[in-house]
Specification:
Mean pLDDT: 90
Distance between the termini: 72 Å
Oligomer: single chain
Number of domains: 3
Strand content: 15-25%
Radius of gyration: 29 Å
Number of helices: 15
C-alpha cells in the first residue's frame, strides 16, 4: 500500500521482560457541514434524532450520495502524510448488527481505501520518531445508544440517538510500530495536531471528533506478535496512556499465570483506571465485506489532487524546519512551537513584534515553553485564549533585553498582565506595570558601585572565602547586592562590579 518498509522508532524499555506492541485506529470526524452520504447536518449538541434524515434512517427507497467535501479532506490528509491517494477506491458494506445501525451494515472502505501508506513523525524526549500508516479510509459513523439520563417513564431503558448516524469519518490505521504508552501518546498528539492544522477535523475529543482505538499486545523479544486487544474510544491523551499501561500489566499477569489472551474489544474505565472486555474481537472476514452496490467506485482525477495540493498550508514539519533555519531555534524548541497552528501563529506574531532577531526568537520560544505554557495548563486554556497577547509578550521580553527589568521582575509583570491589570496591551501596559511595581532596574553605575562597596565592607567573611577559592561566596555577595538594591540592580552588572572590586 505504499508504506515505508521500516519504522524509525528507537526501542523502548521492556516491561517486566516483555516488549509492548501498539498499533492505532483513529477516527477523525471530518469538518463537513453535512453527512457523508446525506444532506443532514453534522452539528453537535442537537436534540436526539433531529439531525437524521431518511437516508440516515435507512428508509426503503433511499440511496446514498457521496459528500465531495469529505473526499477532498481525505485527499488533503493523504498529501500531508506522504501517502498514495488512490485514483480509484471502493466503498464496501461492513455487515454487523447493532441497535444504533439502522441499515444493519456500515458503509466503509476495505480492500481499496482512498489513502494508502504514508507516515506520521513526532518528537519524544528530544528524539525523532516516525510511525508508518497502513491506510486511511472514508466511512460513516453509527448512531449512539443512550443508557443514562432518559428519566421519567423511560428510566431503566435505553434509547437510540441517530444524530451521528452517517457522520463522515476518516479512519487512520497505523502499523504496529509503537513500543510504549509514551510513544503512543505522542503519536496521537502529532496526529491530532495534523488533522486540526489541515482544517479537516476540529479535534474536539470531548465531543467525539477525534477518537483513538489502541491495539495492544505483548511478547518476549524476538517472539511472534502476541494476541492483541483493542481498547476502544479513548477520548483524552491522559486516559490513553493510563489505559495502555493497565492493559500491558494485565496481559503480562495473564501470561505469567499461564492463561491465554483472547482477541477482544475492551473499554477503559477512567474512574477505576482499569480495562474490561466488552466483546470478543471479530476478524475482517466476520464482517462479510463486499462492494456497496448503491455507490459507484470513487474516481479521483490527478487534476483534483493538484488543486487540493495547491491549497495546502505549510505543514508542521516544514514550519519547524523553517524555525530552525531562519530563527536559529533548536529542533526541540521548533517542534514545540508547532504543537498547534494557533501556537505557531502566536510565536510568529510575538517574534515579529519584537523585531524578528534570532536572539528575540529564542527568548520568545523560552517564554512560550515556560511561563506561558505553565499558566495555560494551570488554567486549562488554549493559546487562542491567552490573556497576554503576542505584542505584549514581545514588549516584556524587550524590556528584559534592554535591562529595564530583571527576569524575576519580568515574571512579576507577567503575573499582573495575566490577571488583566492594568487593562491594555503592548509596551504601554508593560511600562505602566514596571513603574507601578517599582521594578525598573538600577542603571546608575555610580549608585550601584556605592552599594557594592557597602556590601563588601559589611561582608568581610564572604570576601575572604571568595578570595580563598570558595565560588559560592561570590553568589552570596551578589545576593546581598540585590537585597541592598531592593531587587533593582542588574545581576550581571552587579557581578561585573563585584569581580572588579574583588580583583
Amino acid at each position: 500500500m505504499g508504506a515505508p518498509l521500516h519504522s524509525t522508532l528507537p526501542a523502548a524499555p521492556l516491561v517486566r521482560g516483555y516488549e509492548v506492541v501498539i498499533g492505532f485506529e483513529t477516527h477523525a470526524q471530518l469538518s463537513t457541514r453535512s453527512k457523508i452520504f446525506s444532506g443532514a447536518s453534522t452539528q453537535f449538541g442537537a436534540e436526539p434524532n433531529t439531525q437524521a434524515c431518511a437516508v440516515d434512517l435507512a428508509l426503503p427507497g433511499t440511496l446514498p450520495v457521496l459528500n465531495r467535501g469529505a473526499v477532498e479532506r481525505a485527499i488533503r490528509f493523504g498529501l500531508a502524510v506522504g501517502a498514495h491517494v488512490a485514483p480509484l477506491s471502493i466503498f464496501a458494506r461492513k455487515n454487523y448488527f447493532y441497535p444504533d445501525l439502522p441499515k444493519g451494515y456500515q458503509i466503509s472502505q476495505y480492500e481499496i481505501p482512498v489513502v494508502q501508506g504514508g507516515s506520521v513523525s513526532f518528537m519524544l524526549e528530544g528524539q525523532p520518531h516516525t510511525v508508518r500508516l497502513t491506510r486511511a479510509h472514508l466511512e460513516e459513523d453509527a448512531g449512539k445508544s443512550v443508557h443514562e439520563g432518559l428519566g421519567g417513564a423511560a428510566a431503566g431503558f435505553s434509547g437510540i440517538d441517530l444524530n451521528r448516524a452517517g457522520t463522515p469519518l476518516l479512519e487512520i490505521v497505523s502499523e504496529p510500530d509503537l513500543r510504549s504508552s509514551a510513544q503512543a501518546v505522542e503519536y496521537a498528539r502529532a496526529l491530532h495536531t495534523l488533522v486540526v492544522w489541515l482544517g479537516i477535523c476540529d479535534g474536539n475529543m470531548q465531543e467525539g471528533s477525534f477518537r483513538c482505538d489502541a491495539n495492544v499486545s505483548v511478547r518476549k523479544p524476538g517472539a511472534p506478535l502476541g494476541t492483541r486487544r483493542e481498547i476502544k474510544n479513548l477520548n483524552s491523551f491522559r486516559f490513553l496512556q493510563q489505559a495502555i499501561d493497565f492493559e500491558v500489566q494485565w496481559q503480562i499477569d495473564r501470561i505469567e499465570d499461564g492463561l491465554p489472551i483472547e482477541q477482544a474489544t475492551v473499554l477503559f474505565n477512567p474512574d477505576t483506571g482499569e480495562t474490561r472486555a466488552m466483546r470478543t474481537k471479530e476478524d475482517a472476514h466476520d464482517y462479510r465485506y463486499f462492494p456497496d452496490p448503491d455507490l459507484p467506485p470513487l474516481v479521483i482525477e490527478p487534476a483534483w489532487v493538484d488543486t487540493v495540493r495547491s491549497g495546502m498550508p505549510e505543514l508542521p514539519a516544514a514550519m519547524a524546519q523553517r524555525f530552525e533555519q531562519h530563527d536559529g531555534l533548536p529542533a526541540y524548541d521548533a517542534s514545540m512551537m508547532t504543537q498547534s497552528l494557533a501556537f505557531a501563529q502566536y510565536y510568529e506574531a510575538a517574534r515579529d513584534a519584537g523585531g524578528g532577531t534570532q536572539a528575540l526568537a529564542k527568548l520568545v520560544a523560552n517564554w512560550l515553553m515556560g511561563e506561558v505554557s505553565k499558566r495555560l495548563n494551570a488554567d486549562h486554556l488554549d493559546i487562542v485564549a491567552c490573556p497576554v497577547g503576542p505584542a505584549t509578550l514581545a514588549a516584556l521580553i524587550g524590556r528584559i533585553q534592554d535591562n529595564t527589568v530583571s527576569h524575576n521582575g519580568a515574571r512579576q509583570v507577567f503575573d499582573a498582565l495575566w490577571s488583566g491589570a492594568p487593562p491594555g496591551d503592548g509596551l504601554a501596559a508593560v511600562d505602566a506595570l514596571i513603574e507601578a511595581k517599582g521594578l525598573k532596574q538600577m542603571n546608575d553605575t555610580g549608585a550601584l558601585e556605592a552599594i557594592v562597596e557597602e556590601v563588601l565592607r559589611a561582608n568581610e567573611k564572604s570576601v575572604a572565602e571568595y578570595r580563598s577559592g570558595k565560588d559560592k561566596a561570590f553568589n552570596a555577595l551578589v545576593g546581598q547586592v540585590m537585597k541592598a538594591s531592593k531587587g533593582k540592580a542588574n545581576p550581571a552588572q552587579a557581578g561585573e562590579l563585584l569581580k572588579k572590586k574583588l580583583g
